[in-house]
TrEMBL record:
Name of this chain's protein: Ripening-related protein 1
Species of origin: Hibiscus sabdariffa
Highest taxon in the source lineage: Eukaryota
Signal peptide positions (record): 1-25
Major location category of this protein: secreted
Family from the record: Belongs to the kiwellin family.
Subcellular location: Secreted
Keywords annotated in UniProt: Secreted, Signal
Amino acid sequence: MKQQADSSVFLVLLCVLYIFASVEAQACRPSGTIRGKNPPPGQCNTENDSDCCKVGKLYTTYKCSPPVSSHTKATLTLNSFEAGGDGGGPSECDNRYHSDDDPVVALSTGWFNNRKRCLKYINIYGNGRSVRAKVVDECDSTMGCDSDHDYQPPCPNNIVDASKAVWKALGVPKNNWGGMDIYWSDTD
């Protein structure tokens, strides 16, 4: 009887491991690279510690993002959505600029999902708090190092690029703004 119970426990554990291995196998893989080139003088906005492309450096591109769940892990980064800010041009969803005092975000290409999350809200969880933010733009994971992307590298595939209002709502001290592990989910 004990041997049968041990076999059952082993079988359950084996099934759980298989499920986790299957989820891991669905991970997003790189789709290519872009070779960096130097931006023309004054053409890369380094507000919010944004990086400029480096000549000759290879940058990884993605057409996908990790699978979305009710608790999707991501990296929160800082972005300005205002005219003249480091976000570049107007937002993809509504062709407008947005105040950095509004809780707005750009999502990596896969999560942006061909504009399917445009002007919808997500919940962001970090620093023991949560905030509701509107998706207004794409953080392009497929292209970069050109004028359309403010001569910045392609976005990694796991980014929630957020306005100052999001960082403030999460209660993160200003000297820690820039890159933080968070979780996010779609709102109902």
